[in-house]
Amino acid sequence: MAKIYLPYGSVEGQTAQIAEYIAELIRAHGHQAEAADLKRSGDTFPGGYDGVIVAASVHMGKHEKFVADFVRKNRGELERLPSALISVSLAAHGDEQSAEGYVEKFEEETGWHPAHVGMFAGALLYTHYNFITRQLMKKITKDKGSPDLDTGRDYVYTEWDGVRRFTEDFLAGFTAPPRQAQA
Questions:
Q1: More confident of the two residues 19 and 41
Q2: Structure letter (DSSP) for residue 77
């Protein structure tokens, strides 16, 4: 049984939901998992974990600074343990090139190049935004040619089956049976 740490940064809550969903999946596969909001838990990496999945949302073309700070401070542990990065952005919904660019920029800023990277679409949460943010997001959405302009509702783009497959692929490294020596 592996013990996995899931530190995350979430502004509007979708990345938090993804991290909690991953933690539930890990537990369902017989492992231990702890999701931790880096805004509350700070940038210290607690000991005793066998793996780590860092999750961060993208706003204004960048991942949260406090997540990048956590990665820079704990890069040695992230490189020593099996680790992964999850990048959550609206760009991951139809603009894969931009989503990949955000990850590349994050890797350059932090010096961490995780072996496993998942890029998942976030959510357009009109009903959670203040008036100005709602209008700005509607304009951006319209400029990108999206029909999702009804500000009286939210649009969740996260592909949950993709999140599940990513998590199971990550866990495969912990559950692979030991290799038998060939005779």
A1: 19
A2: H
- Please give the residue range of the domain that contains residue 8: 3-122+158-175
Per the structure, the count of domains in the chain is 2
Q: Which of 107, 116, 64 is nearest to 88 (CA)?
A: 64
Question: Is there a single domain that holds both residue 24 and residue 45?
Answer: yes
Nearest-10 crossing angle of helices 65-73, 96-110: 50
Yes or no: say if 43 and 30 are a contact pair by the CB < 8 Å rule: no
State pLDDT tens for residues 122-139.
Answer: 988 899 889 998 898 898
Dihedral in degrees, nearest 10, Cα atoms 170, 105, 90, 32: 30
Span 138-161, pLDDT tens digits = 988 888 888 889 999 989 999 999
* pTM of the model as a whole: 0.88
86 closest CA partner among 168, 161, 15: 15
Whether residues 129 and 118 fall in one domain: no
CA distances from residue 28 to 1, 24, 102 in whole angstroms, order as listed: 12, 6, 31
149 and 96 both lie in a single domain: no
User: Do 84 and 55 contact (CB within 8 A), yes or no?
Assistant: no
Q: Which two tokens stand for residue 131?
A: 């008036």
